[in-house]
Amino acid sequence: MYQQKPCWIYQGASEIVITRMPATLTLVSNASAPVKNGQEVRFSMASEPVAYAGTAVEMFETAWRWQPDAPTGTDSVTRADTTACASIVDRGKTCVRNMVRSGTIFVRAYVNGVEQEKSVHVDVKPKPTIKLTVSMDSVNAGDTVLVTATITGADRDSIRGYTYGPETGQGTCFTVKPAPKVCTLIPRASGRMRVSALGDGEELSGDTPVVVRDPKLKLVCDGSWKFAEVASCAATRDDGKAPEVTGWSFTGPDGELARARDVTSTVWTGEIVRSGLVRVMAKVGNSVQSATGSVLVTITRTRIEDVPHTEVDSSAAPSNPTAFDPPKGGLLGQMDPLAEIDSTRMPKPIADGPNTGYSYFRQMPVKVRHVTFLNNTAMKKGSAFSLKQLGPTFTGTSSVDPSYKKKMCTGEFVYQGLPGLVRAHEGSSVNDAISHVQTFYRPFNDTLNVALANQVKLGAMMKADVQPAIRSSEVVARRMSINATHNADVDPIGYKLIPCYLVF
Question: Is the pTM of this model over 0.85?
Answer without folding.
Answer: no
